[in-house]
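Section 5: illustrative case.
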């Protein structure tokens, strides 16, 4: 009986925690991803293109959720700032992704603490909402099983 009460209390406490769900809308993110596909593609491990036009300027975003920054195995175009951020432990989650895509170089300077850090990604998403939506889309289509 004591175990049941403790288990119910734990469940109730967990239920009271704020939801860990993403903030964005994956459907809107699919549309907003059009801004990204000039440089990025989403190609799964079997070689199926999910989104994009076989772009090679930026890394494949399949599996980006939770990936350490600057470590996409088949992409060799990372700048030193991105490699440094990865070495300092940057793993892509919604918070960091949203900050990064709005101003990549500023983000890398702040994250690494290196005033000379630069991002090779020059594009900046203008709307924070688009960044959240694209992240939600990536979570839906670009997560390795």
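Designed sequence:
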């Amino acid at each position: 009986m004591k175990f049941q009460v403790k288990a119910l209390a734990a469940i109730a406490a967990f239920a009271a925690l704020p939801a860990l769900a993403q903030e964005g809308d994956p459907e809107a993110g699919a549309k907003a991803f059009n801004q990204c596909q000039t440089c990025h593609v989403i190609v799964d491990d079997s070689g199926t293109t999910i989104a994009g036009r076989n772009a090679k300027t930026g890394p494949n975003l399949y599996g980006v959720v939770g990936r350490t920054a600057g470590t996409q195995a088949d992409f060799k175009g990372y700048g030193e700032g991105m490699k440094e951020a990865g070495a300092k432990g940057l793993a892509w989650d919604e918070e960091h992704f949203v900050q990064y895509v709005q101003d990549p170089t500023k983000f890398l300077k702040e994250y690494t603490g290196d005033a000379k850090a630069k991002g090779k990604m020059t594009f900046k998403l203008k709307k924070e909402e688009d960044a959240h939506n694209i992240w939600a889309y990536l979570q839906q289509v670009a997560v390795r099983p």
